Amino acid sequence: MAAEIHSRPQSRRPVLLSKVEGHQDAVSAALLIPKEDGVITAGEDRTIRVWLKRDSGQYWPSIYHTMASPCSAMAYHHDSRRIFVGQDNGAIMEFHISEDFNKMNFVKTYPAHQNRVSAITFCLASEWLISTGHDKCISWMCTRSGSMLGRHYFTSWASCLQYDHETQHAFVGDYSGQITLLKLEQNTCSVITTFKGHEGSITSLWWDPVQQLLFSGASDHSIIMWDIGGRKGRTLLLQGHHDKVQAICYIQLTRQLVSCSADGGIAVWNMDISREEAPQWLQSDSCQKCEQPFFWNIKQMWDSKTIGLRQHHCRKCGQAVCGKCSTKRSSYPIMGFEFQVRVCDSCFESIKDEDRTSLATFHEGKHNISHMSMDISRGLMVTCGSDRIVKIWDMTPVVGCSLATGFSSR
């Protein structure tokens, strides 16, 4: 089934190919079927559906299956046509889809969690089903026997998961804003390290095993790139969304990061340039520019007979400054600040007009986005959310062309 060929606008923005509607509640997950004009969706209305594109150009459900509990997460392995659906009750159900995508057979149920399943990964090599849930744990189960192999508990809800199939390392983000790196073994695991850089809960993770980079999105509207291979910790902070970052996907071939937020924002970040790391905020009892005391510095206020000032931080140099010494705002994309942030007056003077040139493109998805998935080989993206609508996008105008990357919209 070949996709329709759409003329691409000169403004280089995502092209909406299709809308898929039919769910009666929020759509929790949507995945494009590789090499097919089809999409698999799972929803809070307790249904899992396989939609195939008909000759009319419309997507119609070839499979419609009702579950016992709302569907909260999904993983699909195309080569074996195995699908795993996590539910609100903590169970994960495995199905096998027929070659023509018109029938789905139940395989087994995995009692993976005691509460809502938040993320699922299937590893064919080890036959492991790895998942996280709102019971504050990661579990890994054997898909041959259906038995539990191991569990590890966190201090708060585990919200998202990425897995390195070669090294058996798992990255787990949680609601406290922490990311934990675990090494999974057959019946045990060890905590390698933890990362803390976000001021809100972790909502999405993406692991690139080639460059050994981890990207995390959070409810604080920001994205952080962590250099795992170089053991540098946090290296880049990206701020361009105005709502929580719900999904991210790094395209290693073109060095671009695609991110989606709850307000419908779609951002494409150019990561193929040398960016600057945002500074750590410095602590001081007085303004590091004019030396006036901050309001908690009782002694200096008494000695100088002045009223203490409120503390701010310059986003470019990280210094603790007062409001009078940081009256300006500026974007600074090289450091990841795509919209205007507070900078001290001296840093503002050092920023040239060309330094304000955006290093990302921003687009409007025009619906609430809670989940996104990409078929990178075709440059296609699917988004879904609480508005019950699934949208399929041609992203090739903004993430590379067929000559440069091998992308094709066919």
Automatic annotation (TrEMBL):
Residues 281-352 form the FYVE-type domain. The keyword Zinc applies. One of its GO terms (molecular function) is zinc ion binding. Pfam families: FYVE, WD40. Keywords: Endosome, Metal-binding, Phosphoprotein, Repeat, WD repeat, Zinc, Zinc-finger. It comes from the Eukaryota. The keyword Acyltransferase does not apply. GO terms for biological process: positive regulation of toll-like receptor 3 signaling pathway; positive regulation of toll-like receptor 4 signaling pathway. It is found in: Early endosome. WD repeats lie at residues 20-51, 195-228, 238-279. One of its GO terms (cellular component) is early endosome. Positively regulates TLR3- and TLR4-mediated signaling pathways by bridging the interaction between TLR3 or TLR4 and TICAM1. Promotes TLR3/4 ligand-induced activation of transcription factors IRF3 and NF-kappa-B, as well as the production of IFN-beta and inflammatory cytokines. This is WD repeat and FYVE domain-containing protein 1. It comes from Sylvia atricapilla. The lineage of its organism: Eukaryota, Metazoa, Chordata, Craniata, Vertebrata.
